[in-house]
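Postdoc handover notes: sequence design on the structure in folder B. Input tokens:
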């Protein structure tokens, strides 16, 4: 098949269709991924404050890609500019937790329903393989579970919205500790996955709704208790 590359970096086949090319990971991408993982509790962290110089030294790169990564993290709401310069983790507040949970409760049951419909139509992905080994009590793993379902929905804009909300929720969960994780989190994940793999759209929506209501209750309670003791 004849293929030529456009100036925008896409491949064009003889039939005129565009095929997306994988963009190589830049240093800024690497810095973004590493700092994000630290923020979400997937890496050990020494401080809530983020210094360009210290991060550049830790990541063995110049300040420029680190600065770009921090700016991107600020845009998605994971960090904010500090009063004395530099950046810091976005603070966790009861209001922020409530807003994130309400938005997820609106979006994620629909994503689970779409993923189940795709399975029923024979167009689903193998969720079981992708979700194996994830621990619902770990913020990073929990976010990975919900991201996988959002991506399995194959919707146009929904996955990106849910992924950003999941990152914000993981940041909050990491800050609030184990009290923010519902007791039945693991069972909730299993119930959702079974419904999607069975292609049962109604059951998948119901299971995700039940799970997200439990998540919201646990997180809002933990945020309220933390505010009362601060």
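Designed sequence:
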């Amino acid at each position: 098949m004849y293929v030529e590359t456009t100036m925008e970096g896409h491949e064009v086949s003889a039939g005129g269709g565009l095929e997306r090319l994988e963009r190589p990971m830049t240093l800024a991408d690497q810095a973004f991924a590493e700092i994000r993982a630290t923020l979400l509790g997937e890496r050990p962290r020494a401080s809530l404050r983020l210094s360009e110089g210290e991060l550049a030294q830790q990541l063995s790169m110049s300040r420029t890609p680190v600065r770009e990564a921090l700016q991107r993290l600020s845009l998605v709401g994971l960090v904010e500019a500090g009063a004395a310069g530099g950046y810091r983790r976005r603070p966790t507040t009861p209001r922020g937790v409530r807003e994130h949970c309400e938005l997820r409760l609106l979006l994620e049951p629909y994503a689970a329903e779409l993923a189940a419909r795709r399975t029923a139509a024979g167009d689903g992905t193998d969720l079981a393989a992708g979700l194996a080994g994830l621990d619902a009590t770990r913020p990073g793993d929990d976010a990975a579970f919900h991201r996988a379902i959002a991506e399995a929905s194959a919707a146009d804009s929904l996955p990106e919205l849910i992924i950003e909300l999941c990152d914000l929720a993981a940041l909050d969960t990491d800050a609030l500790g184990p009290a923010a994780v519902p007791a039945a989190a693991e069972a909730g994940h299993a119930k959702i996955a079974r419904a999607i793999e069975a292609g049962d759209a109604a059951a998948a929506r119901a299971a995700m709704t039940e799970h997200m209501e439990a998540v919201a209750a646990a997180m809002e309670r933990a945020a309220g208790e933390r505010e009362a003791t601060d």
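Context for whoever picks this up: The domain at 94-229 is CATH 1.20.120.530 (Four Helix Bundle (Hemerythrin (Met), subunit A)). Don't rerun without checking with the PI first.
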